[in-house]
Amino acid sequence: MDRGVGENEKEGKGANPAPAKEDEANLSLAAAIKVQKLFRGFKDRHKWKRRVLIEAWDELEKREESELHYSSREIGRMTEMYESLAKNAVIDSDGAKKERRPSAVLKNKDEDKKDAFKPTLSWLTAFMDNCRNPSENKTIMEEKKLESLLTQASAALKKLPNVVDIELKGKVSLIIVGDLHGQIRDLLHILKTQGLPTKDKWFLFNGDFVDRGKNACEVTIILFVLKLLFGDWVFLNRGNHEADDINARDGFMDECTSKYSTAMYKAYNQCFAALPLVHIINKKTMVVHGGLCWDAGVTVKKIQEIDRFCLHPAWESIMEDLLWSDPGGPKHCGASQNDRGCGCIFGEDIVDEFFEDNPPLKMVIRSHEKKDQGFEEHFHGKLVTVFSASNYCGDNGNDGAVLEVFPDLKYKIHQFYATPMKEDDAKFSDRYCTLSATVAAKLIHRIAENRLELLEYYSKCTGLNKEAKEVKNDKQSVITRVEWARGLREILGLRVRFLFLQETLGLPLRGVNGKKKGKINYMGWLSKFAPSNTKLLKLSVKEGGVKIQETLEKITNLLLKHRVAVKSMFRYFDANCDGKVSPEELTNGLVCLSKVYNEDFSEEEVKKLVAELDKDGDASIDYSEFCEAFSVANPQLAEAIKKVPADTVMRGSGSKLEKVNSKRGVRVSRLNSVNPESQ
Questions:
Q1: Of the ranges 80-89, 440-449, 521-530, which one carries the lowest mean pLDDT score?
Q2: How is residue 377 annotated by DSSP?
Q3: What are the CA-CA distances from residue 543 to residues 98, 102, 517, 552 (Å)?
Q4: How far apart are CA 134 and CA 618, in angstroms?
Q5: Rounded CA gap, 435 and 55, in Å?
Q6: DSSP codes of every residue in 462-522
Q7: Is residue 214 pLDDT above 60, yes or no?
Q8: Residues 6+ apart with CB under 8 A from 115
Q9: Disulfide check for 291: which of 149, 158, 325, 353 has CB 3.0–4.6 Å away?
Q10: Is the pLDDT of residue 589 over 90?
Q11: Pairing state between β 580-581 and 344-346
């Protein structure tokens, strides 16, 4: 009996660990579920923040393009005034008569000479291998050979009409490549995965080969060689960035002049002017870079009659619309003004009307807009956008895509993400941080440029803020965060969710009353954005200090607003591309700036400033370094700007430009009598 009890006791002792293990498993499962729940929450918040940043980036992108477009008038006046001053000519304050630089294609004197460069397939493959590890300032093709290549490409393109017909038969397919924007890795990835052109696989590159990326020269060299080697199988469309008034300030001019010379930059734009505008596949599918036109009744025949051989399209012309327009949302009707400043936003009714005027067209394929997935279908499949620059500008994290079109006009989408080998395992959060830094730097610059306007706006808000009297200190400088965000939207003219970017823009977490996300002192916040220039701050102010200091502050504020225009002007006249100008040239440039923008400082004040800048007496001033030295007073915000390349931040003007008076209103399609509705 005792023995039996003993056995039972032993069995009991052996059975005790089972419930313990079960409890431990339950705890582990509960912990895993909790961790998973926390991670999902973090991931959702992360996605939402990224969405806000992408929206802000897209809004800034359109605003910068609009400013680049409208400021070309001021740039043209400044460059002509600068040239007149250099020749000691007398000019008036009204500036030059012409609004933009002459848009004429000059005849190349070397067109009839024997070609010095003969492209071959072996040369192309070797060149592409060299491009796999690109360098920003590395010249991988001799300038004389490049000049010969551009001459040959230009001659071949000039023979083509504005609208090129493509006929696909049998097993032939056409790969349509969207915007590349100087991103060589995307082009190499496409050619690696799709292969080089063959009799059964053709390629159409749909514009925007240059700007933004660091290797636009290499991209265009490959495309032009492909066109010369496989002329019947390779097609090129012109994009809005293949124009001298845009690529002069959006990266390509700086890249081309640093790798080659100003002469090569001009030769490139001569070649771009010969690019066709439209391709039509099997008479039913039109491929164009931007979109449709604001004007009613535009036909393929009218497009064919355009004089495309110009360095940039004329204002509000059919050619400009083809390169700049964008589709609206599903509910958008008619054609209305585009936030880019060029072209229009068009609805499905405009597409239907265009098809009705141009039978048997049934579909439009275009590029021009970044898409997260690399493509997007619009208007029930009547229009498709394809964008091929993955991780656009190095911070968007978007996919790239190409379209493969078959003879029956059905298409297949190929998506990709062409990252450098070292970045294959890059974390999503790293790309998020890069995007956040870029948006922050762009907004910080714009806030600094419009600091005085924001100060005036917020001062009016305090008069309406009845609760401001409760604050003991700085009673007249307290506003709510909603008022803060509303002021930024109104003064900067940006549709951005500023309340989600408070910390990014230097707003304290706690308000003046100590409460979390409480009211803020706008005077203290705006003081962080006081304009500063590291070069000007180093100037000694011994004799006549007050006057020189006033001049410095005045010119610092002016140059902060228009530094892009100043740099573009100097770059245009920097013949040897060394990035330096003489004191006299800098004086002339600043005087032109004051006349064009009606700023109140004298030539004598400018001369004093320039004399201080050239203290070493070498009669040479680095204008690029000088222009890019502009920042803000707050060290943390200034550090945020430094994290982003200057050419990325310094794209648009930032200031409110007086837009050219437009005769265009809102176009209502004859197929739809409803008033156009915004997206």
A1: 80-89
A2: E
A3: 42, 45, 47, 14
A4: 35
A5: 11
A6: HHH-GGGGG-SSSGGGEE-HHHHHHHHHHHHT----GGGGTTTTT--SB-TTS-BT--EEH
A7: yes
A8: 148, 151, 152
A9: 325
A10: no
A11: unpaired
* Nearby residues of 422 by Cβ (< 8 Å), 6 or more positions away: none
The tokens describing 213, both together, are 């990326």
pTM, full prediction: 0.77
Q: What number is the average pLDDT over the span 487-516?
A: 89
Cβ count within 10 A of residue 139: 12
pLDDT, residue 573, reads 57
Name all contacts of 540-549 with Cβ < 8 Å and 24+ positions apart: 540/612, 540/615, 547/605, 547/608, 548/608, 548/609, 548/612
**Are the CB atoms for 371 and 389 separated by under 8 Å?**
no
Catalytic residue among 241, 312, 445, 562: 241
Helices (H), 195-251: 216-229, 244-247
What is the rounded CA–CA span in Å between residue 448 and residue 525? 11
Category of 366 on φ-ψ map: left (φ > 0), alpha (ψ -120 to 50) or beta: beta
3-state secondary structure of 62: helix
Q: Where are the beta strands (DSSP E) in 352-494?
A: 363-366, 375-378, 383-386, 400-405, 411-416, 478-479
* pLDDT-based confidence at residue 1 (cuts at 50, 70, 90): very low
Cα 117 to Cα 112: distance, rounded to the nearest angstrom: 14
| CA angle centred on 599, ends 595 and 600, rounded to 5° | 110
Q: What is the reported pLDDT for 675?
A: 47
d(CA 289, CA 385) in angstroms, rounded, equals: 9
Start-to-end CA span in the chain (Å): 89
Token pair, residue 16, equals 């005790």
> Order of strands across the sheet with 173-177?
234-237, 201-206, 173-177, 400-405, 411-416
Query: How do residues 26-85 score in pLDDT, each as one tens digit?
Result: 777 778 787 777 777 766 677 788 888 888 888 888 888 877 776 666 666 666 666 666
Give φ, ψ of 332 to 5 degrees. -70, 135
CB-neighbour burial class of residue 360 (10 A; exposed 0-12, middle 13-18, buried 19+): exposed
Q: What is the mean pLDDT of residues 606-630?
A: 66
> What is the chain's Cα-based Rg?
29
Give residue 22's pLDDT. Answer: 72
How far apart (Å, rounded) are the C-alpha atoms in residues 302 and 298?
A: 6
Q: What is the pLDDT of residue 96?
A: 41
Q: Identify the H or E element spanning 80.
A: helix 72-86
